[in-house]
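Researcher: Next sequence.
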Amino acid sequence: MRVSIIIVNWNGLVHLPECLDSLAAQSFKDFEVIVVDNGSSDGSVAYLEGRPEVRLVALKENKGFADGNNAALPFARGEYLVTLNNDTKAEPDWLEKLVSVAEAHPDAGMVGCRILSYQEPERVDSLGMAVCLDGMSRGNSRGRRFAEVSPAAAPEILFPSACVALYRRAMIDEIGFFDGDFFAYCEDTDLGLRGRVAGWRAVLARDAVVYHKYSMTGGALSPFKLYLVERNHFYAALKNLPFPLLLLLPVTTLMRYFTQARVVIGAKGTGGEFLTSGSKKECVLAVARGTRDAVAALPQLLAKRAQVMRHRKVGTFEMLRLLRRYRLTFHELLDAGE
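Model: Next structure:
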């Protein structure tokens, strides 16, 4: 078995048929589909039981995206592990082109693809990920027209979005899969940075195309999502960022808070989206809770950092160079403009 495709589902019945049908139409055939259901109550399990090509792992409760994927790992037989959101649709040659790029780059532990907006197919959802100085991340070139994005001279990226990503099993066996403490959001940043620290490259399969209904699975921006993102970006940063950036973390975090406050007060960019489902007070409290819980977890995070650094093959200056190359400004992060 060459490829194990892992789909985590939670009350996503409305999305599953289109996603699974697009997999059935793939030109590349040497793959299995494992769907982990996170305790859905919308009839997803009954539907999946009627799809003979699917190996169903039914959990009794919602374990989140991170541990949902982890639950599939004991059943996955593939040389490559591919994470795929349930609210996606793949082009028929997507997997063929994705695997082709992975095989052309044996030193790459991670391969991303061209993720486009389902609603606006001419616009980019992600071409790999970019990272802010404080560890916040988002899809590279998100919202831009793909035709306006210049092709890279080399296919290298920092790491892929786990919305659609290929991970080499050899890398996962070395450094582990997702950290279940994240539950959801930023777990791909953590895994991607761990892979980079361990010396694995990441490349982009630019011609492997998937369409993504952004935020349809996790829900729109909300105070709870804001809490998870705030907490988890600290988790990822404290586990993986080079030491000089850790020293600057209080300063860079305050810089982002200042930018974020302006965005929320002005209801611009993502600030306007947050306020559609929560008040300004709820947003501030969500950020405060996320920061508080990250600080409370500091002893455990430092222990995990020590584990990450035991696999380190890339030095501090090389990691700083990579992070500078794929740096995301706070205005870009928040869609706030300059």
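Model: The first helix runs from residue 16 to 24. The chain has a mean pLDDT of 93.
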